[in-house]
Amino acid sequence: MAILPIIRLPDPRLRLVSEPVARIDGEILQLLDDMLETMYEAPGVGLAAIQVAVAKRVIVADTARGDEPKTPLVFVNPEIVWASEELNVYQEGCLSVPEYYEDVERPARVRVRFLDREARTQEIEADGLLATVLQHEIDHLEGGLFIDHLSRLKRERVVKKFTKAARERSAAAQVQDRVEA
To answer: Whole domain around residue 91: which residue ranges?
Structure first.
C-alpha cells in the first residue's frame, strides 16, 4: 500500500467528472487500498479517487471515531438512488480544501447502490455522518466540492484564499529550485 498525494483547491482536476469503473481488477483493488491508507494518514473520514488525481468513480470511507475499531468501506461506481426529504446540517471539511470548515445542509438519509470489492452490486442505507460523507464524496465524482453548497460570497472567498496559497507555494518552490541549481 502507498500514501498518495492529495490534490488541493484550486487544482482544476477536482472539477473533472469521474469515469465509471468498467472492471474491478488488481489495479482498482490496489487503488482502494492506497486510498484507505491515504485517508487514514490524512486523517479523514472519506476520500474520492479524484482527490488523488484518479478520475474513476471510486470512494472510500470510515466514520469510526477515536478508539473505535476501523470500519473501512469501499464503493465502486456509487450512485444515490434515494434521498430523504428530511435534512441535516453537518460541519464539513475536505482533504482537498484543508483546514476550512462550514455548515452544509444535505438530506439526512440516503440509499446508495455500488459495487463492492468483489464486483457484487450492493445497497446501503445511511444516515447521520455516513450519509453526509457519502453525499460529499459522490459530489467529488461529479466534479463538485462541499463549498459549492455555500453562498457565492463564501465560495469565492475560499477559492481566492486557496488560489493565493497555491501561487505562494509555487513561487516558493521556484525559489528553492533556483537555490538548489
So the answer is: 12-151
